[in-house]
Amino acid sequence: MRRLVAQTRLSAADLVLPVFVREGISEPVPIASMPGVVQHTRESLKAAAHEAVEAGIGGLMLFGVPSPEHKDAEGTWGTRPDGILNAALEDLRGELGEATVLMADLCLDEFTDHGHCGVLDDQGRVDNDATLQRYAEMAVAQARAGAHVVGPSGMMDGQVAVVREALDGASFTDVSVLAYTAKYASAYYGPFREAVGSSLQGDRKTYQQDPANATESLRELRLDLAEGADLVMVKPALPYLDVLRQVADLADVPVAAYQVSGEYSQIEAAAERGWLDRDVTVLESLTAIRRAGAQVVLTYYAVHAAGLLRRL
Ligand code: PBG
C-alpha cells in the first residue's frame, strides 16, 4: 500500500554520479574525507563509467584534477585538448558513445594556481568579464572532447549566455547547458576541496550566494532561463530544500540538485560510528531532494543507490 500511494519515486535514471579524474597517477587515490570515493586514473575512470552505465544511472559529471605544474593564473590546462578533463571526456565518449549523458564541470578552479573559479584582476579580485571569455573557450573545448552537457559552476554573471553563444557559434547546438543557478558559498564543499587538490586562498563569497538569502535565487533563475539554460541546478541540496522548491515551482526546464561532498561525508562519518543507518539515510535524503522538486540528483551515492533501489 505504501508503495502504491507513494508520491515521490526515486530511480537510478534520475541520478548523476560526479567523478574525479587525476593526472599523473598510476593507481586510483582514495579521498580521505570522502570514504569510498577516489580520484581516478584515466583507466580506472573508464571502468567506473562502465559500472555506472550498467547500474542504469542517468549520467556522469566529470571533474579534472591536473598536476600542480599544470595550474597557472589563467587555468590554461582547462581549455587545452590534452588537459586532464578534456582528455578524460574524450576517453569516455569514445568508450561509451551515447550510452549515458556525459557532463563536464565548466569552471577554472581546478586549473588555476590561486584556486579561484575565474581569472583575477590586478587587485587580486575575480574579474567577471575576463572570466567569461575563458568559460566560452572551455565550453567549446569540452564539447569538442565529447561532453553532452556543460555545467558552468563558477557563478559568474552572464555565464550561461556566453557559454550558449560560444557553443552555437562552434556548431555545438546540441550540447546542453546545466546552469548552476543557485550555488551557495557553502561549508559543505569542504571535502570536495581535498578531492580536487584545491589551492584556494580566501573564499568565494564575492561570487557565490549568501546562505541567508532565498529570493536572489529566483533572480538567478530568471536570468539563467533568459540566457538559455537547458537545466537549472540548486546546490547544496539538503540544506536548501526550500530554495529548490521555489525554483522548481517556477522553472520550465528540468531542475537538478547536487548532494555535495559535505552532505556525503556527514552520512559516511555518522554511519561509520553506527550513529546512522547508511542505506536508509541515503535513500531518505535522495527521496527528500526529489520530493522538494529535483528531477535530477547529482550524488556520490548514485551507483550505490541504484544497487539499493534494485533490491527494494
Ligand atoms: C567549483 C565546484 C565546487 C563544487 C562543484 N564545483 C566547489 C566550490 O564551488 O568551491 C563542489 C562539489 C561538492 O562539494 O561536492 N568548480
TrEMBL record:
Pathway(s) annotated for this protein in UniProt: Porphyrin-containing compound metabolism; protoporphyrin-IX biosynthesis; coproporphyrinogen-III from 5-aminolevulinate: step 1/4
Lineage top rank: taxon? Bacteria
**Cross-referenced SUPFAM superfamilies:** Aldolase
Query: How is this protein named in the record?
Result: Delta-aminolevulinic acid dehydratase
The record's EC number reads 4.2.1.24
Summary of subunit composition and partner proteins: Homooctamer.
Which reactions is this enzyme annotated as catalysing?
Answer: 2 5-aminolevulinate = porphobilinogen + 2 H2O + H(+)
PROSITE patterns the UniProt entry points to = D_ALA_DEHYDRATASE
Against InterPro entries, the record matches this protein to: ALAD, ALAD_AS, Aldolase_TIM
* Gene Ontology molecular functions: porphobilinogen synthase activity
> Which family, according to the similarity comment?
Belongs to the ALAD family.
Q: Does the keyword Coiled coil apply?
A: no
- Which keywords does the record carry? Heme biosynthesis, Lyase, Porphyrin biosynthesis
- Which CDD domains is this protein grouped with? ALAD_PBGS
Which Pfam families would you find in this protein's record?
A: ALAD (PF00490)
Q: Which organism is it from?
A: Ornithinimicrobium faecis
Q: Tell me, in a sentence or two, what this protein's role is.
A: Catalyzes an early step in the biosynthesis of tetrapyrroles. Binds two molecules of 5-aminolevulinate per subunit, each at a distinct site, and catalyzes their condensation to form porphobilinogen.
